[in-house]
Design a protein that fits this description.
mainly alpha; about 45% helix; about 10% strand; flat
């Protein structure tokens, strides 16, 4: 299945692009091969192959569909009378793209788009005798391989080498016990230090355990309070 087109279109408008592809397909059916850029060859190839597929079934409906794209009646006749019959037995791949280098001037990559003219070799179905012969040949090859293996085992037994098939399988060794090192003793802790966070943190701790918040007086400790004058 052809890939969807990407990038800018061929020409300024969609109508111009359709005209370019239509003219390229018409020239391909008329001359059998055309030389164009690789981009145009890849774009016109799906269109040409769809038209050839329709031309392989010569009906009024298919002729009308082809006439929508190919406007020259002589080219339509060539497509239905010469090109389509030569593609009998081929399910696709009616055209071929061959790169031929770059164009002088703008260095654009060029390619030759041509119609495949090689005859497709008819596939002959295999007869019953051929199928039986292939099955017998495969069975004989299997028997020969078995006989060769038996001869090799007999030679080993005659030389004194043990045969691999008769040697008992050794029992797997039990897994070794993994000894884990003892855990180190916990480090000794020193005396508790002063509480962190200042007086606010201490007050929050006292409040969380349900103790009464101590009242802090503005009077410094050790200084007698002033006596009011009489």
């Amino acid at each position: 299945m052809p890939k969807p087109t990407k990038g800018p279109r061929l020409g300024g408008t969609p109508a111009h692009e359709r005209i370019i592809l239509r003219n390229l397909a018409s020239q391909l059916f008329e001359h059998g091969r055309i030389v164009t850029t690789v981009t145009k060859a890849k774009r016109v190839r799906p269109l040409a192959e769809k038209l050839i597929t329709r031309a392989k079934t010569d009906t009024v409906a298919n002729r009308r569909e082809v006439n929508k794209t190919i406007l020259d009646k002589g080219i339509v006749y060539t497509l239905f009378a010469e090109i389509a019959p030569s593609m009998e037995g081929r399910d696709g791949g009616y055209t071929r793209i061959t790169r031929i280098g770059n164009r002088k001037g703008d260095n654009a990559p060029l390619a030759v788009l041509e119609i495949v003219t090689e005859k497709l070799a008819p596939a002959t179905p295999a007869t019953v005798d051929q199928t039986k012969a292939e099955i017998n040949a495969a069975a004989a090859a299997v028997e020969a391989a078995k006989v060769a293996a038996d001869e090799v085992e007999e030679e080993k037994a005659a030389e004194g080498h043990p045969v691999d098939a008769e040697a008992p399988a050794a029992a797997p060794a039990p897994p070794a016990a993994v000894q884990t090192p003892p855990a180190p003793p916990p480090a000794a802790r020193g005396p508790p230090g002063p509480p962190r966070g200042g007086p606010r943190c201490v007050q929050g701790r006292l409040r969380s355990v349900g103790r009464r918040r101590p009242r802090l007086s503005a009077q410094p400790v050790g200084v007698p309070a002033p006596v009011a004058a009489a």
